[in-house]
Structures are given as structure tokens and as C-alpha cells.
Amino acid sequence: MRKKMPFHVSIFMSYATSANNPEFARDGNTLTLQGAVTIDNAAALMQQGNVLLQAVGEDAVMDLAQVTAVDSAAVSLLLEWQRNAASRRQKIAYVNLPQNLVSLARLYDVAELIPLPS
Q1: Distance (Å, whole) CA 72 – CA 38
Q2: pLDDT digits (tens, 9 = 90+) for 45-57
């Protein structure tokens, strides 16, 4: 039998879980990513992003203005989406990248592989 949690604990867990589940919004060829992008959700985001980029069909814009937190997995995601898009002869323009994501890409010396703002 499952143990029932006190009300205040279940509310907190619901909020914490939703805060860790980023989501995409699509408007034409623009995909907006919202939420944290970390190792905890990188595999799911990779899959969702690739499916959405393929559905766009043409060159796409990935808006990251609403990304709330990143770690090194976010850099890997950008590279993976770029690689998959290139295999379909599709281009991705990344816009509104969080400064800490740009810093990580430069730190790992992969900034030239990702179209980053100067």
C-alpha cells in the first residue's frame, strides 16, 4: 500500500517536479524552450527537440530566452540538435542564449561549432 504524503509535501513535490520539466512551444519555424536544461532531462529534450525540428522541416529558430538553468548537458544538446539538423540540410539559429550557456560553450572550446552571439 502506498503511503500518503502530507498535503504540504505533495504540493512542494508537484512544484519541484514541474520546475524540472522543461517544455517546448512552437510558433511556425520558431521553437521556444522553457525551463531548466540539465543532465537530468537532456535525453528527453534531445528526443523532443529532434522531433520538433524535423516537423518544422525548414530552417528553424531555437529561442532560449526562457531557459532558467543550464549545465554542460545543454551544450551537448545544442551540438546534437545542430548535427541532426545538418543531416537533413536544415539550419538552426539559436537566439537569446543564457550567458552561462555561452560561457560554457566557450570554456569547452566548441563555440565555433554553435552559432553563438558575439
Answers
A1: 7
A2: 999 999 999 999 8
